[in-house]
Amino acid sequence: MSNKWLMKLGLGIAVLITASQANADPVFAAPEQNFGDTLEDKFEEEAETEPAEENDADDPEVSDENHMESFYLVEPDDAYFGELMIDSVQLHKGYSDNFVSAKKALYEGMLNWEESIDLSECPIPQEDLMRLYYNTVYSYPELFYAMVGCNYYMSEDGYVTEILPVYEVEKYSKADQEALRAKGREIMSLVNEDWTDLEKALFLHDYIVQHVEYEKTTQHYNHTAYEALVKGIAVCDGYAGAYDYLLSLAGIDSEMILSDEMEHAWNLVCLDGEYYYVDTTWDEHATRFTRNTYCCHDNFLLTRQEMEVQKHTATDWYGPRSGRNVYKTFDMSDNYTNAFWKDVDGALPIDGDQTAYCDGDKIHIYDLRRMKDIAAYDYQHDDWSDLGSGDSEYGSGYTILSVLDGVWYYTVSDGIYRLNADGTSERVYTITDEERAAGRIYGMMTVNDKLYYEIAPAPDADTVKEGYFSISHEENKGNNSIVKDASGNLAYYKDGVMQSTYSGMVYADDNWYYVEKGYVAVTKTGFVDYQGSKFVVVKGMLETNANGLVQDPDNEADWYYCAAGQVQTQYTGLAEYNGAWFYINKGKLDTTLADYVEYDGGLFYVAAGRIMKEVNGLAKDPDGPDWYYLAEGQAQIQYTGLAFYDGEWFYVVDGKLAADYTGNVEYDGAVFYVENGMVN
Question: Which of 280, 298, 350, 475 places its Cα 20 to 30 Å from the Cα of 529?
Fold first, then answer.
C-alpha cells in the first residue's frame, strides 16, 4: 500500500509513504517517560474553565467484527499542518484514563518498532485517533521514524482497538534510532548535573544554535531531531524537536509549538514552574555572522509579547501535546525580560555557576545563580576588517568567549587570549599568514578539549575556514619559562621550579615547545602526540607555519592535514592544497577511497586520495549501479537533459544517468525517444 501526502511544516516537505513494517526487538532502553506531563496538566487546568463535553470512551462495546482503516497525519488533499490541528482540537473533549493509557501503549510500541499495538484494554473513539497520534509523535522526538501515520482496526461502534504504525523504513533504521540516543548521551555528558534548570536550558540552547546548520533548500528529510543532532542540518521543526529532546533528557518539561500561519516551529519551556518561549532557529538563522559558532539570545526565555516583538506575529500557536492553541492560554513569566544575554551575540560558556560575556568595553564574569556580575576586566581588543570591501573596519564588537579547563579565553581579530585569574590577559595563539589572507576570527567554541575558531573574510561570509587550538591544560596555566641550564640545555620551569618529570607540549615565552623529561627536545623534528592530538615539531618547537598537507618524516607514506602545526583530526572531507583537492579522513590523507564524496553541496569523484579532475563524461559509482555525469571529476547535479558521451547520447536527471527511463525527452527544441536512459 502506498500513499502520497504533503506536510507543510517549517518550510514544507513532500514524502512518499510505504506502509511497510519493521519487526525486531528493542536493543536499548529509552529514558523513562512521564505520561502525566506538567505542561499537559497545566493545559488541563486552563481547560477546566471551559465547558467540556464528556468523552464516553470508558466502556465501549468492542465487537469481534473489527475492520481495518487507515490514518495519515496529513491527508493527500490537505497542505497545511495547522488546519488539521484545528480539527484535532475540536475533536478533543478532554483527557480520559483511556487516552493516557493509549498514549503510553502507542509510545512504547513505536519505540520498539512493533508492527501491531493492542489498545483493546484502552480503546479510544476514532475521532480521537488523530489527536492521539499527534500527541505521541510530537511529544517524543525520538519517534522520528514513526511520523507517517498508521493503519488501525476499529470496532463497529467506532472505537480504535489496534494500531499498526507505518514506519519510514526506507529512510530510517534502528541504527539511526541508536545514533540519536548516542548523540543525546554525548551531549548530556557535557551537562553538569549540579547545574540549575536555567543553566541547562541555556547550555542546550547554545549547543543547538552552534552545532546545527539551517537547511535553506528545505529537503524533506531535515525536519526531525535526528537530522538536527546527528546530521547537523535541519529546518525549524528539526531545531525545536532537538531542543525538546535534549530538554527531556535534562529533566526539563517542554513542548514543540507550531504555527501554520508562519510555517514555523519553536518551544514552550517550563523552568521552576514558570513558562517561557524559546526559538533556537531564529537565534541561529536570522542574524548570524558566522556559519557555526555564532549564537544570539534574542529568542531565549521570552513572554508571548516579547515573541511578538521578535516577529512571531501569528496567532495559531498549536501545541500537539496539549491539542490546543496556546497563543493566549496562560500567563508567561517575565523573569528574564531584562536579562543580560539579550545583547550577547556569542554563546555563553558555563563553568560551574558562572558564565562570561563581553559588552565591547569589558569582559564580565557573571553568576547565573545570583543573576549578577561578580567581576569585570579590561581586555585586549582591536578592530575587525572586511577583506571583501576595501578592508573597512567593523570595530571591536566580534569578541567571542569560551572556557576550557576552567580558564576563560577570548578572541581578537587575529588571535586568542587567555584571561588570567588576576584579570590580566595573555595571547596564546596568533593566526597564520595563510589564515590572515583568508580573513579574521569571527567565531570560537569549545568542543571537548579544543578551542575551535573560524576565519572568515567578513562577518556574514558563507566561506569559513575552521581550525582549532587545544594546548591549554592544567600544567600550562602557571608562570612557565624555558631557561638554559649550566650545560646549555633548554630546561622547562614552572613557577620557578624545573619540571624534570614532565613530557609533552608547553607554552612559554610566547612559543610552544616539545619537552621530554623537563628539557626541550631540540633534536626532535616530526609529529608528536600530546593529549590526544598530533602536532608538527621542528627542533623541539611547534611549527605554526605548518598548514595544509604535511608529510611525516618518520613514515613518508603518511600525510596529515594541519592548521598552525596541529593535525585536524576532527576533519573528514575534501581539502585544497597547492591547487589540487584531496580527501582527508580524520585529519589524514586517505589514498584508499575510490568513491563519490559529498562536499559543500557538490558531489565529487575521488580516487587515490584526490578529486579525479581528469574524469569527464559518464562514470560509474564503484559501490553501486548508478552512473554520474562528470565534468572535471564533479557530478553535474544541477543538470537535467541529454549528454553526449563516447559517441552516444544519454538522458541525465540531476547529474545521474536515468537508466530506468523510457519515453520522450525534449531537448534543444527537439523531441527524442529515450530507452533505458539512452537516445534510441
Answer: 350
CB atoms under 10 Å from CB of 206, counted, come to 25
* Cα 475 to Cα 447, 583, 661, distances in angstroms: 20, 36, 65
- Coil vs helix vs strand at 421: coil
Residue located via cell numbers 619559562: 481
Helix (H, G, I), strand (E, B) or coil at 217: coil
Which helix (H) or strand (E) segment holds residue 22: the answer is none
Asked if 391 and 383 count as a contact pair (C-beta separation under 8 A), the reply is no
- Average pLDDT of each block of 10 consecutive residues along the chain (680 residues)? 23 24 29 45 44 43 53 40 37 59 93 95 88 86 90 90 91 91 91 92 94 71 88 90 95 90 92 94 61 77 93 87 76 90 87 89 90 89 66 66 87 89 84 85 80 82 73 52 86 85 86 92 93 88 89 92 84 85 92 89 90 92 90 92 91 94 92 93
Judge residue 500's burial from the number of C-beta atoms within 10 Å of its C-beta, 0-12 exposed, 13-18 middle, 19 or more buried. Answer: exposed
Q: List Cα–Cα distances, 346 to 205, 258, 283, 364, 445, in angstroms.
A: 12, 27, 10, 13, 9
Give yes or no for a contact between 327 and 336, defined as CB atoms under 8 angstroms apart.
no
- Sequence-ordered list of residues with C-beta below 8 angstroms from that of 246, at least 6 positions apart, any chain: 184, 187, 188, 204, 207, 208, 229
